[in-house]
Q: What sequence folds into this?
C-alpha cells in the first residue's frame, strides 16, 4: 500500500476501491465486458457506496470504469440465460428491483458528499443511470452515452427517466429514451449530460483532481448545498428560500466558515476541518 493510499476490500475483483487524499476511488473492473453490472459487481458497488458515503475520512466519491468503458449497464448476454426469472412471481420481482434501485442509485443520490463520475468510454442503460446519479460527470473525448433500453425491448430502471428529465428536459429525455442513440461526448456536453469533456489521456487525472479539490472543501457546507439543491427540485421559490435561510445560518456557525474568513483576510488557502 502506497503512502496516503488505503485499499478497501470490496469482496470481489470485479470492483476496486481505494481512498486517496480523502477521495474514495471506486472502479468497476470488468473491462472485458465493458464493466457491465453483474451478480458480484453490483452488490459490492452497493456496499462501497454506503461504506464510503458514511466514512468520515472520505470527502468525495469518484466512480469510474477500468479500461475503455464506464459501464455498459446490465449484462445483455446474461439476460438471455436468466429464463428462470420468469418463474418468479411478478410482485416479488418488482419488490426485488425496487430494493436494488434504492440501494444503488438511490443510495448514491442520498450521499451528502460530492460524487463524480469519470467516463473513459461508453455509459449505457443502468450504467448511464449510475453516471447521471452522480453530482458531476467528466468525460473523455471517446466517451459515449446511450439509454439503450428500447433497443432490447425494455423500459428503463435505476431512475433513468427521472434523472434524464431533470437534466435535459422533457422533450430531450423522450428522444434519448425512445431512440436509444449513441451520443458522443461533445453532444453530451451540449445537452448537459456531462459537465466537462477532456482529452482521453487527461480524463482520469482531471477527474481525480476535481474530486480531491472537493474533498478538501468545507464538507458541512457542501452537504447543506446538496440539501438545498435537492429541496429545490420539489419546492416552490419561497419554500426553497426558506430552506436556504436555515442552512445559511447553520453553515455560518461552523468552524470551517470562520477559517475561510480568516484565510480570505490572510490571503491564503483555507484548511477546512469539517467542523
A:
Amino acid at each position: 500500500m502506497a503512502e496516503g493510499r488505503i485499499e478497501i476490500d470490496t469482496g470481489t475483483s470485479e470492483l476496486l476501491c481505494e481512498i486517496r487524499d480523502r477521495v474514495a476511488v471506486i472502479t468497476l473492473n470488468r473491462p472485458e465486458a465493458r464493466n457491465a453490472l453483474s451478480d458480484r459487481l453490483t452488490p459490492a458497488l452497493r456496499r462501497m457506496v454506503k461504506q464510503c458515503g458514511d466514512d468520515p475520512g472520505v470527502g468525495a466519491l469518484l466512480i469510474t470504469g477500468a479500461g475503455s468503458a464506464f459501464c455498459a449497464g446490465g449484462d445483455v448476454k446474461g439476460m438471455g440465460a436468466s429464463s428462470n426469472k420468469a418463474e418468479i412471481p411478478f410482485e416479488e420481482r418488482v419488490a426485488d428491483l425496487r430494493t436494488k434501485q434504492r440501494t444503488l442509485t438511490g443510495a448514491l443520490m442520498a450521499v451528502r458528499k460530492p460524487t463524480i463520475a469519470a467516463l473513459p468510454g461508453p455509459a449505457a442503460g443502468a450504467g448511464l443511470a449510475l453516471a447521471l446519479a452522480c453530482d458531476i460527470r467528466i468525460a473523455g473525448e471517446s466517451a459515449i452515452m446511450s439509454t439503450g433500453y428500447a433497443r432490447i425491448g425494455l423500459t428503463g430502471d435505476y431512475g433513468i427517466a427521472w434523472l434524464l428529465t431533470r437534466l435535459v428536459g422533457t422533450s430531450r429525455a423522450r428522444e434519448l429514451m425512445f431512440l436509444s442513440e449513441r451520443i458522443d461526448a461533445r453532444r453530451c456536453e451540449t445537452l448537459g449530460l456531462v459537465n466537462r469533456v477532456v482529452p482521453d489521456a487527461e480524463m482520469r487525472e482531471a477527474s481525480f483532481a476535481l474530486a480531491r479539490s472537493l474533498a478538501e472543501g468545507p464538507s458541512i457546507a457542501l452537504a447543506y448545498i446538496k440539501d438545498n439543491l435537492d429541496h429545490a427540485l420539489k419546492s416552490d421559490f419561497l419554500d426553497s428560500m426558506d430552506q436556504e435561510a436555515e442552512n445559511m445560518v447553520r453553515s455560518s456557525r461552523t468552524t470551517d466558515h470562520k477559517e475561510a474568513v480568516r484565510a480570505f483576510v490572510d490571503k491564503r488557502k483555507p484548511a477546512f476541518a469539517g467542523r
User: Anything to note?
Assistant: The first strand starts at residue 5 and ends at 8. The first helix runs from residue 41 to 54. Strands lie at 5-8, 15-20, 23-28, 60-65, 115-119, 123-124, 136-140, 144-146, 183-184, 196-198.
